[in-house]
Amino acid sequence: MPQAKRSLNVLVVGAGLGGLAAGLALQTDGHKVRIIDAVPEFAEAGAGIRVPPNSSRLLLRWGVDLEKMKKSVSRRYHFVRWKDGSTMVKLPFDNIVETHGAPYYLVHRADLHEALLTAARYAGVEVLNHKRVVSYDFEVPSATTQEGEVFTADLVIGADGIKSIARPLLTGKPDIPRDTGDVAYRILIPGEKLLANPDLADLITDPCTTSWCGPDAHLVGYPIRNGELYNIVVCATSYNETTDEVWVIKGDNGELCTRFAGWEHRVQKLCSLTGDFMKWRLCDLPDLTRWVHPSGKAVLLGDSCHPMLPYLAQGAAQSFEDAAALRQCLALDIDLKSALDRYETTRRPRATLVQAKTREHQYILHIDDGEEQRLRDQRLQINGDENPVFWGYDERRKWLFSHDAEVLAKESANWPISASGSGVTAR
Q1: Which of 26, 39, 147, 346 sits in a 20 to 30 Å window from 277, CA-based?
Q2: Is 104 annotated as catalytic?
């Protein structure tokens, strides 16, 4: 493991998963890290999240206690037809550790956040709440809060998400997150309700990730907390429920049941078991021109520079990879600006490709029934470049899951895009 060639005072703005991971990784490498966040306190929020091997290996290495966390393990990824529940393809996940060198966990986001927060504080990271940053001076560098408090450091890391204040100041260009036209319903159902229904019980007792694919929508379901909860994420075409000002609104059981009334009976039963839930506008950004400020004293990380749509379940994982690469670059015997530039040139190609593939999957998973849908379903069976799902091909899955972001010199940092393509074109 690296030991930093310099000991920096680091200010991380944003105590989400990426910000905490960055703080933990840098603190354990000899830097002095302070993280500030606008929220008054950290409360249980969110729903399920997948922790694939390219992130679990890093968390375990940094001392995050995943062993004690309540979690589930997916035995396979099961794509099914929306209308009748018939199998499109099953991708086995039972040899994940042997193949990729680290586990694939299904957890509650709040549990993962708490584990990261605990590990960061144990390592000596100072985490301060109720500090809403309203301005920066990247030449100092410093961040100023709404109350007028000024935090200075040797390095400022903007980990403040897709609505980042740091990003337009750092890039020198105004930006507005792009509405993708989809919303995400994030739903949790008590596992005991599924166990009481013979048609749904195996979704708990034989844990896997199930993806129901249909016109204009798909649902992804999997158990978390050892089967105590069943997590469902619905990604669907928006009915203009959200606005530019309000991205998150409450949904209800009746709306869900009506929308999916024509889907297979298990989907209808799952919808009937839901209570209230939250719906989130899904937005992303154009690829940024830079992640590092010209001063060489400020840098972006995670959703602030490459927000990920949920279709590949790589948002948190890519922010952890950012933290890992930044840690390694700061350990090099080079000046700070060169280290940050190395971080950007290392991470941007991979993160940008994953970002692009998530956008493609928004279309691939929502194709209307017809000839193109039949071609997609046929090619899902192929373990080759023609498979439209990025990690449906073993070699691409290995590139994604087996990657160790702390190995900077690793070859094939980006996946070569074949001219053959999948035969299914994102629109």
Answers
A1: 39
A2: no
